[in-house]
Amino acid sequence: MPLRDRLLAVLVAGCWGLNFLAIHLSLAQFPPFFLVALRFALIAVPTVLLVPRPDVAWRWILGYGFGFGVLQFVFLYLAMDTGMPTGLASLVLQASAPFTVLLAGLWLHERLHARQAAGIALAVLGLGGIAVHRAQLDGGATFLPVLLTLCGGLGWALGSLANRQARATEPFRLTLWMSVVPPLPMLALSLATEGPSAIVGSLSGLGSRQGLLAVAGLLYTVLVATLLGSGLWTTLMARHPSSTVAPFSMLVPVVGIGTSWLLLREPTPVVEIVLGSLVVAGVLLGSRPARSRPAEPRPARSRSAQSRSAGRTSAVAIPATPSPRPVSPSPSDVVAETLTGAPAAAESTLSASDRR
């Protein structure tokens, strides 16, 4: 992986890490469900008007949009609105990776290797420790936001599996069309739970300092985190193996926790930093592909055996070689897609000489 692409991967991780700070600023002005509707509507409208629909079945677009766009952000935004620390949210959301591996085994019948099982166990241990620690703070009031964020990670995993099943030849176009799904159901949910008065009130004070910061955070989420970040990451996933690119996403919680501490003065207990490092280590371990066994050398045959074999070959017609069976995606590729939000399937179209 050349230095330029490494720097681009670090840039994308930084953009995604700062996105949690942008969400924090936007939630200070907008109700959470209405904010999700706004976020995706700003992408969906120009997408419908200007971008051709990807050549995939509608069920995968709907599944991707419902899991990644609706379920993930319903729970994540609600968690952050009810007290989930910004930096901790960027870390706990990494639970999407072990969720994806487990769901891929159940839904797609993919084989779980020992290394991936160990990585899942390590990540679950870290996440469980964070949940137990939060349950002991403030009489358990901080446990619910952690649980909601975990549900957001589960929604992300469901969306990633639908994305993977779509097998889109142009994954970024699929990412854009996924944004068409969330606006209407999220607006309906906002009207039903938050009410028209809360929506109108959030739109009336946009000229204030808080309102301007909220709009800036929303624009950052749409333009930088979604369009720029996803576009660059999709390009990197097409150039290099997913196992090379995916580990850079582990910089996201590092940036998220660091910026929340630096700019928001959010304290992060040492025990949660230690447990969070277990989550990161587990995701890294689980996203590494299993080692393939080298082919065993075939025993050399004597010249007499070769001549007898040649004689039989000339007398018997050799059947045509059957076409190779399609190979299903490995759990490591699905994990890479979960960590990045961009399909790793594009990598399979590259030749061996292109994977440098």
Automatic annotation (TrEMBL):
Residues 7-130, 146-285 form the EamA domain. GO terms for cellular component: membrane. Residues 302-315 have a biased composition (Low complexity). The chain crosses the membrane at residues 7-27, 33-51, 58-80, 86-108, 120-137, 143-162, 174-192, 212-233, 245-264, 270-287. Its main location: membrane. It is a multi-pass membrane protein. It is found in: Membrane. Signal peptide: none annotated. Keywords: Membrane, Transmembrane, Transmembrane helix. Gene3D superfamilies: 1.10.3730.20. It comes from the Bacteria. Residues 290-356 are annotated as: Disordered. Belongs to the EamA transporter family. This is Membrane protein. It comes from Cellulomonas soli.
